[in-house]
Amino acid sequence: MKKIHRRRFLAITSLSSVVGGIIAPNLSLAETGSESINIEPTKAQEAWMKLKYGMFLHFGPNTINKVGWGDGKFPPEKFMFENLNTDQWAQTASDAGMKYAVLTTKHHDGFCLWPSRYTEYSVKNSKNKKDVVGAFVESFRKKGMKVGFYYSLWDMNFPDYEKDKLYAEYMRNQVAELLRNYGEITQIWFDGAWDKDFPTRQWQYDPEWEKNPGSGLKHGERWEWESLYNEIHRLQPSCIVQNNSSSDRLGQVRYFPVDARTAEHFDFIMNEKIIQPVIDPVFTTPKGEKVYLPLEYCTSLSPQWFWTGEQFLLHPSVETIAGWYNTARKHSANFLLNVGPNDKGVIPDYHVTYLIAAAKKLGI
What is the DSSP letter of 161? Predict the structure, then answer.
């Protein structure tokens, strides 16, 4: 990648951050000054950045229950989609100009969409025992797209979840299972870290915790995060690892190591303030090393991440979808747009209509 002066980079992104008269400050954890940016993305990061536009797919027991979050008590035998059509998902993504897709392999409820050998709470105990992860991978690869996995660190079902060492081993085993059994995986999108990281066990972050050694704030120790990260790269060195920083810390790093950052939602308002994303991709690790961490925006076409069957829905317009895409591109960021399949196992027609119209408007 061509080197670019830091001030030039920040000037470009600052100009592109003007939306509705609001200028997003370009925050950074790296040093500022007149130095040139000589930190370049890795080959794996470059390949991932070239994908640009992807489909986020939240699908699972929550789809049947029509809820945003489950509780880990959904009976596996009730997980059944007679008309599940992952080919339709892939066709929709392809028609929308997308180049990759990320599926919720395990959400906070702990239910696994693949027949994991490490838990009974999975599709192997569903009515038809269909490997949804396998079907997803096959369908999207047939369309020439890359595939990635969402995996929740938080798990409401695992009986020994509070036994950190045991649960960390469980996670490593499951992630290894996913990486060994489904071919090349372009990224793993982790979520739910706040449950063991934050003293409140809620997703909202309080910077005051950092100032108080007794606050109970953790930085991935309970997840054995570094070991998990290293295991992923041992199995698939080019897999991009992310750890969602949540909607109140867009583009920030929850902790190191990671390979890319998340910005969950555009124009997010919290406590009467606009949450601005960190744009600058150069960060300094606790060891003093500078690293390049590309950004990925994500948001949803529906009010919840999962399809919840609302009777009334105010859908994002074609112009809004195109605007999200253009904002991401101006910030040299990827855009992962969530499209929750419905309880029939297909992406609703209304989503398809807007996605294809947005692709036409964008010329992609």
Answer: T
Report d(CA 107, CA 57) in Å as an integer. Answer: 11
Helix axis angle for 349-362 and 318-330, nearest 10°, is 50
> What value does the mean pLDDT take over residues 92-116?
98
Query: What average pLDDT does this structure show over 215-233?
Result: 97
**Where does residue 172 rank: exposed (0-12), middle (13-18), buried (19+ CB within 10 A)?**
middle
Q: Hey, what are 31's tokens?
A: 């040093």
Ordered by where they begin, the domains of the chain are 41-362 (3.20.20.80)
pLDDT at position 37 is 55
- Exposure on the CB side of residue 139, measured as CA atoms within 13 A: 20
Q: What angle do CA 275, 276, 279 make, to 5 degrees?
A: 150
Is 162 a residue whose pLDDT tops 90? Answer: yes
- Across the beta sheet with 187-191, what order do the strands follow? 240-243, 187-191, 146-152, 100-106, 53-57, 334-338, 295-300, 261-264
Q: How many helices (H) and strands (E) does the chain have?
A: 10, 16
Local confidence band at 310 (pLDDT 50, 70, 90 cut-offs): confident
Is 60 exceeded by the pLDDT of residue 235?
yes
Residue 12: strand pairing partners: none
Does pLDDT of 311 surpass 90? no
**The tokens of 4 are what?**
């670019």
E-only strand ranges, 234-272: 240-243, 261-264, 269-270
For residue 283, CA distances in Å to 27, 70, 81, 139, 298 come to 10, 35, 44, 36, 21
Q: Say yes or no to pLDDT of 118 above 50.
A: yes
Q: Which amino acid is at 139?
A: S
Residue 208 DSSP symbol: G
Q: What are the respective helix, strand and coil percentages of the chain, to the nearest 5?
A: 30, 15, 50
Q: Residues 134-153: pLDDT tens digits?
A: 999 999 999 999 999 999 99
